[in-house]
Structures are given as C-alpha cells and as structure tokens.
Amino acid sequence: MELQLQHLSKHYGTKCAVDNVSTTLTPGVYGLLGANGAGKTTLMRMICGVLKPTSGRICLNRKPIEGLGESYYVHLGYMPQDFGFYPDFTAREFMLYMAAVKGLDKKEATTRTGELLKLVNLHEVADKKIKSFSGGMKQRLGIAQAELNAPDILILDEPTAGLDPKERVRFRNLISDFAKDKIVILSTHIVSDVSYIADTILMMKDGTFLLQEPMSTVTDGINGKVWELLVNEREAAEYSNRFSVVNLHRENGKVRLRMIQDTSPAADAITVPPSLEDLFLYHFGEESSAERSE
Amino acid sequence: MLIKYEFLKILRKKSTRIVMTVSLLVTAFLFGLPVMQFQTYSQEGVIKGLEGIAYEKEQAADYSVPLTNAYITETIGEVQKLFENPDNVGYDGNEKFLIDNAYWDGIAPRENLLNIIAENYADPNESVGYNALPDLDISEGTDFYGARQKKIEKLLNASSRKLSEEQKAYWRDRNGKVDEPFTNGYYEGWKIIISSFELLMFALLAVCIVIAPVFSGEYQAGTDAVILSAKYGKTKLTTAKIIASYLFGALALTLHVVVALGLPLAAFGFDGWDLPLQIAGTTIPYPFTFLQSVLVNLGVVYLVLFAMIGLTLLLSAKMKSPYFVLIVLVPVLFISMFLSPNGTTGAYNLTLFLLPYRSTMPEIGKYISYQFGGLVLDAFTMRAVLYAVLTAVMLPLARLGFKKHQVV
C-alpha cells in the first residue's frame, strides 16, 4: 500500500491553501502538525476525494485516484473535523447507515457495528439518539464509523479537539489499536496527541511541508537549542522579553525557564533534550502560542 | 437499505412532522370549507350543511335523466309556460324572473340544469340564466346538440383566440368524441374538487420544504465529507436520496389527496362520478366523466410534484442551505397565483397556463392548446409532457451536483 501525493496544490482565488506538496505514504502513523490555516484540512479533503486539487494528483499504488472511483473509497476511512451527525438517529442506526454507504452487506454491517460500538465504549448507549451524546461520545462514534470498512487508509482530522485529557488518552489508545498495517494520517495542532502515537511527523506551514521526519529523529534538528535556566521573578520577566520562552515553572520562589535559542541565553543555562512541542514552537513561534493553551 | 435510511432521515425530523401536520390541517380546512359553508334554499328558508346537501340531492334525483332533444324541448316549454302567466313573473327593472311557487316548484329544483340549457343557446362569453329560455323558439322542437356545435364553432373562430386550423381541427375532434345525449345528475362533490385543485399547492410546497435539506442539509450539517468519501457516497447514495425523496413526496401527496377528495366526497357523496363534464358546461371539449377528469388532473398534479421535487433536489445539491433552496422555490411555485391570463392564446397566456400553480387547475372549458408543427396538444397533455421532461432533465443534474460537490 502506497499513497503518493504528487505536486499537490489547492488555490482558492489568489489564496494558496496547499502549495505543491509531494510525499509518499506507506503504512504507519503520520502526525500532521501545523497551526490553524496551515493547509492540513484542505490536504486531507483532497486525499479523501471530496475536494479537487487545483493541480497535481494523488495516486494509490501508482494509480490516480480519480480513475479508481468506488475502488479507492473502499480503502478509505475518514473522520473529518467538526463533522455533523444525524441527531434523530441512534448510534446503531448511524453506524448501520454508514455501513450501507460504505458498501458493507447487512450481516457484516451488523457485526462490525456491534464490535466497534463496544470498542469505543458506546455499546450501552447504542440505541440512544445521537442528539443526547456528549462531544466525546460523538468523537468516539466518529472514529468508529471511520473504521467500519476496516480501511487501509485512515484519515483523522483533529479527532481530539474539544476532548478533556482523559478522553484524549482514551482516544489515542483507540487510534493506536486501529493503526496496525494502515496508513493513518492524524491531523492536530495539539502536539502531545501525536508525540505518543506517530511514527512520522509531517509539519505543515503556509500550505507546504516544513519537514517530514521519523518521530525518533524529528527533533534532531534542534538538538542543543533548547535551554533551561533557574532565575528569580524579576529576571524571568527580562528573559521573557528577550528570548523565546516556551515554558515557565515556579519552584521554591524561583522560576525555571525553558527557552529555544540557537545560542546559550546565559552562562548558567543548560541544554536539555528537545521535545516535539519545542520543535513545533521553534517553527511556529507566536502563531502557535494561543493554540498551546489548548 | 440506503433508501430505507434516507427515508428514515426524512421522516425522523421534527420539522417534517410539523410541516406535514400543518399542511394536512390546511388542506382539510380548505377542502372542508365548502362543506361547512354549504347552504341551499327552499321556500321555507335556508338549509345548511349536510341537511342542505341531502335536500339538494333529493331534488336533483327527479332530473337525473338523459338530456335528449325531446326532453330539452319539453323542459324549455315548461319554463316558457310559467313565464306566460303574469302572476308568476317579477321584474327588477332589468330582467324578468319567476316568483313564488312558480320559482320554487318549477325552477329551483333544476335551476342548474336550466341555466346550462340557456347557456348552450347563448353566445360565447354571454352569461344568461333560465330567464333567457322564454326567448327561444321551440315551435319545431330544438336541436340542443346542434346548438352546442354552433357555439363551439363560434368559440373556435373567435378572432381573439387566434387558433390555427390544426388547433381548431384538434378541438373539433375532441368534441366529436363527446357522447350524446348527456345524462344529467347530481355532481356537487366533483364540482367542488375540480374547482379547488389549486389548493393542493400547499401540499406541494410542504413536500418541497421537507425535501429541501436532502442534499444541502448534508452540506449544512457537515456530514457531506463523510458520506462523499464512502464507497457509494457519489453513486448509490445519491440514487437512494432521490428515490426516498420521491417516495416521500408521492406518499405525502397521496395523503393530502385522500383528505382533499375524501372530505367533499364524504359530504356530497360519490354521485356524478360517471356523468359527463358537459353537464357543467356544454362547450367543455374533453370527452371525460367527472371521475376521469379528476383522475387526469390528479395525474398532472403528481407530475408537477415530481418536477418540483426534481427542481428542489437540484437546488438542494447546488446550494449550501435549505433556506436558499426555498427562497428560489417558493416564487417558482406560486408566481402564477399573482398573474392573470388575458386570453387563451399568445405566448404570455400559454406560458402562464404551464406554470406550476396554474398547472394544477384543470381549466377544462378553456380550449388551451399548444402547437408544435402539425402536432397539437391540449393543456393536460402539454403539462404532463412538460413536467415529465423537466423531471427527466433535473434529476441527472441533481445527481451530478451532489457528485461534484466540493467540501470546502
């Protein structure tokens, strides 16, 4: 299984949402990171065949997907960002409906629906109407429908948005369960979500891939650029004005600062191993600060 | 399976239930109104409602006979005789009329029939009543059906109509197929139905409101991305949505038709179903009974509905919100309600008679015809063809609209 994106671009008038993106995806979990408006959702919609690229093409095993028709969609499971449900359907009816749209026969649809609702812990409310569900329950139903046809390509757009920490952990585990032998593209601007489960990081900015690296080496580029320093309150304010402070932690009347800086910000600053979040902030800086609070 | 779920999607919505309930109540009220308001008169005064209906039916029973020339001559003679006695005649300064027992015994029980007979001998566009009958010369009998033919010829040759020779020939042929002699009888229920068909437009509007979200509702709710990226999202699902919409539309309209026809027929009875339309107007060119006429027009109403469903689905596939769909659709449905015909020919009139609201009206006496080369079609046929073609054109476009929809 190989999914190729070849010089993929999408323009809306003069605005370029995705700009000449190329990559080849093989089974594994891809964390698609980027600030809001980076082009992640547009890219995913094009991969899912619901948005036509302005130029470039997408190939599955070297065949352009527009020529594959239904036989492409059988490989696909998609959970879009903020997608709606049918509030008057029960969870089971929604799953059976989606199974029918995905071409599963009645018996298979019933079996898969039962299995998946149990897996996402919705089996006890399977016959309750979706309008009574919480955000987290809807998200779980969303991933369950994406997995109905046991897809080879699973595309999840901001699946953990709006979930509390406990729900996010549960969700990450679910995705890990589903990810085996699949191409999983997980888009998020919540860095910690992908740092646990992604094999490869795709970082997008202004419609292009800023980097495509395996998770194990993705932070190598900023090795030696992340510093920690223990200072008093007054100095902390000064450092915050002068340097890119990514974290501030108060300890016994002192403040431990974490900074990303090419050179040492102070004589007593020590380098620490960089995290994925450091990398994200290194590239996105101010534009991501608001999102980090999520 | 997909059709079942798409049908369920339509039915489960609270808005569907509300719109359908309101629409059925409106239809029941509008078609029940003639029953509630019905009143007739006897020498003793007004008789209302079901009692009035029973009284009229009883009176009409004596005149449910074939309208042979001999019978017409005899009837005209009876009226003329009543007018010969000055004690029977009143005068309002404009026209003479019968009074007291002469009216209540000799005219009232068969006034409709007498008016129809008098109209048959009058010029087109001239409105006369039974008091025109004394002017007729029946010394050598009367040729009621010959007079009908003459009146039809005058209608066809009226300069204002500008009918072509082919159209005239078409209408002569249609009239030639009308069976003679006509049989008179009671047909009040059917008369009300035929004159109220356009009230079914509320049912059509209700159906369009309910199915407006079939495609655009998916865009609005954000479910489009999920279903369009699934195996049958752009193929079988679209077909299922269309079939479910038609299934709902047909069932909803049938429910309204049952109410609309059921109320007048329950009150006035089925009487008259097999009588010819011509007893309601002798120049009506269609060789149909009342029942046939209602069925033919119902067929046209269903085809109008199917085309409007097609248009609704097309708009729904192209627009992001069901509200936008309705903003376009409502004027299309009702524009002709506010336009008046200024004749029966001419591009304006011919177009007007084909618009949705007008197309639900049978216009059985109007001689509306459409000519394409040597081919002449009456209003029923033209409407049926037009709306069938519109349906056939709009459905593939709706399918394509959804298939090509871009999730932006």
Would you spell out the secondary-structure blueprint of this structure?
The complex is a heterodimer of chains A (294) and B (408).
Chain A: E1 3-12, E2 15-25, E3 28-33, H1 40-47, E4 55-60, E5 63-64, H2 65-68, H3 70-73, E6 76-79, H4 91-101, H5 106-119, H6 135-146, E7 153-157, H7 165-178, E8 183-188, H8 191-197, E9 200-205, E10 208-214, E11 226-231, H9 233-242, E12 244-251, E13 254-260, E14 270-271, H10 276-284, H11 289-292
Parallel strand pairs in A: 3-8, 3-9, 6-7, 7-8
Antiparallel strand pairs in A: 1-2, 1-4, 4-5, 9-10, 11-13, 11-14, 12-13
Helix pairs in contact in A: 4-5, 7-8
Chain B: H1 2-12, H2 14-36, E1 39-42, E2 45-48, H3 49-61, H4 69-84, E3 89-91, E4 96-98, H5 100-106, H6 111-121, H7 144-157, H8 165-176, H9 188-196, H10 201-211, H11 213-221, H12 224-228, H13 236-268, H14 290-318, H15 322-334, H16 347-352, H17 356-359, E5 369-372, E6 375-378, H18 379-403
Antiparallel strand pairs in B: 1-2, 3-4, 5-6
Helix pairs in contact in B: 1-13, 2-10, 2-13, 9-13, 9-14, 10-13, 10-14, 10-15, 11-14, 13-14, 14-15, 14-18
Overall description:
The complex is a heterodimer of chains A (294) and B (408). Chain A has helices at 40-47, 65-68, 70-73, 91-101, 106-119, 135-146, 165-178, 191-197, 233-242, 276-284, 289-292, and strands at residues 3-12, 15-25, 28-33, 55-60, 63-64, 76-79, 153-157, 183-188, 200-205, 208-214, 226-231, 244-251, 254-260, 270-271. By secondary structure, chain A is α/β, with parallel strands linked by helices. Chain A has a six-stranded mixed beta sheet with strand order 6-7-8-3-9-10, with helices on both faces. A four-stranded antiparallel beta sheet of chain A has the order 2-1-4-5. In chain A, helix 7 links the parallel strand 7 (153-157) and strand 8 (183-188). With 408 residues, chain B is mainly alpha-helical. Chain B has two domains: 2-37 and 185-403, no CATH class; 67-142, no CATH class. Chain B is built from 18 helices and six strands. The two termini of chain B are 29 Å apart. The mean pLDDT of chain B is 93.
